[in-house]
Specification:
Blueprint lengths: L22 H8 L7 E2 L11 H10 L12 H11 L6 E4 L2 H13 L5 E6 L4 H8 L3 E6 L8 H5 L6 E7 L11 H9 L4 E5 L20 E6 L12 E4 L2 H10 L7 H12 L1 H23 L3 E2 L6 E5 L5 H10 L2 E2 L1 E2 L10 E5 L3 H14 L1
The structure holds pyridoxal-5'-phosphate (PLP).
Length: 363
């Protein structure tokens, strides 16, 4: 069909994003009761959302016929208070952190430019680069999934516009050190995007560096520790000049009425956030201790664990767990991950116990 030729050439190289499996699809495929399925494939909050956020959604349901404010300043202020910045350093997206990537790519990536991506990592950096006409340049992590700043800097050239550092990294769970981040920032004229989707479960954040570096973006999400994946809210801490450029090209009214209300309420519920983090840290220990005696479990600062189940294949083990009603993530679709890595989100204590039992049976 000749109209297909109108599609931008780099789009042809895109392999569609592979999401974690849903409860509905697994219930149908394996004839299981949806209520018995344990979903640990998408790194969501096993406790659900804060009750205050749910109440705010209900309270605002009667207002959905009205446009939200074009600029959700109150929410940006609340995020600013949470991160220690004024609202002028905060940008938001009503399509999760994925929406932040899209808008930042509109600003910095075009035909002939490049982004550097240490792999294996979150696959949307590659998709969004290609979708904007850019070329993703991949750097392999070492056997412990460490990224060497020198290796990254070795790939920088005059076309490099963005460098993506996921910390803690999805799917490996390890974080980058401030020293290494500084080394990269100090030696490049490109924009460095640190993806902190899982930072609430980690020991350190790089947001403080935005005060020092004009080429740093730190992306965050409400989908993980805040338990609002279904609301699709993301934000980033950025230098003011980037915030101004971002506002010019972001989708108008992108932050909807219900998300704005839920986000503000969730930020106000510190107790719930603390409880969510504690649940993950305890569960992470419970799972890594038990599963560590059966296979290689990598240390994680996130709300998931990456496990090498070789000589078995990730596909085979994930299938066996699915049949038992446990959804985990087969990492085969992550570029550079090989065929024996799986990722399991940390669940509640009871869910984790079921996972451990299933592993004992399977391995
Ligand atoms: C590392 C990383 N970044 C970003 C995202 C996207 O988050 P959001 O739900 O805010 O779009 C995810 C989602 O799983 C992720 O793992």
């Amino acid at each position: 069909m000749r109209f297909k030729e109108l599609v931008r050439p780099t789009i042809k190289d895109i392999k569609e994003y592979v999401p974690g499996k849903s409860i509905e699809e697994i219930a149908i495929k394996y004839g299981l009761d949806p209520d018995t399925i344990i979903k640990l494939g998408s790194n969501e909050n096993p406790l659900g959302a804060s009750p205050l956020a749910v109440a705010a959604i209900k309270k605002n349901a009667g207002r959905v016929h009205l446009y939200p404010p074009a600029d959700p300043l109150e929410l940006r202020k609340a995020i600013g208070d949470h991160t220690g910045y004024p609202a002028t350093n905060i940008v938001v997206s009503g399509n999760g952190m994925d929406g932040i990537f899209d808008t930042m790519m509109k600003l910095f990536i075009s035909q002939g430019t490049e982004s550097i991506i240490p792999i294996p990592t979150f696959s949307y950096y590659e998709i969004a680069t290609l979708a904007n006409g850019g070329k993703p340049v991949f750097v392999d992590r070492d056997s412990d999934f460490y990224i060497s700043p020198e290796k990254i800097l070795g790939k920088v050239n005059k076309n490099t516009r963005m460098i993506f550092l996921c910390s803690p990294n999805n799917p490996s769970g390890n974080s980058i050190t401030e020293k290494d981040v500084r080394k990269i920032l100090d030696s490049t004229g490109a924009i460095v995007f640190i993806d902190e989707a899982y930072v609430e479960f980690a020991n350190s954040s790089m947001t403080g560096l935005v005060r020092e570096y004009q080429n740093l973006i730190v992306g965050r999400t409400f989908s993980k520790a805040f338990g609002l994946a279904g609301m699709r809210m993301g934000y980033a801490v950025v230098p003011e000049w980037i915030a101004r450029e971002y506002m010019k090209v972001m989708t108008p009214f992108s932050m909807d009425v219900l998300s704005t209300a839920a986000g503000s309420a969730a930020l106000g519920d510190r107790e719930y956030l603390k409880k969510s983090i504690k649940t993950v840290k305890n569960g992470r220990m419970q799972l890594s201790k038990a599963l560590g005696s059966l296979c290689k479990v990598y240390p994680s600062e996130a709300n998931f664990l990456m496990i090498d189940i070789s000589p078995r294949s990730a596909k085979e083990v994930s299938e066996s767990l699915l049949k038992k009603g446990i959804i985990i993530r087969d990492c085969t679709s992550f570029r550079g991950a090989g065929k024996s890595l799986i990722r399991i989100s940390v669940g509640t204590k009871t869910q984790n116990e079921k996972v451990i039992e299933a592993f004992r049976e399977i391995l």
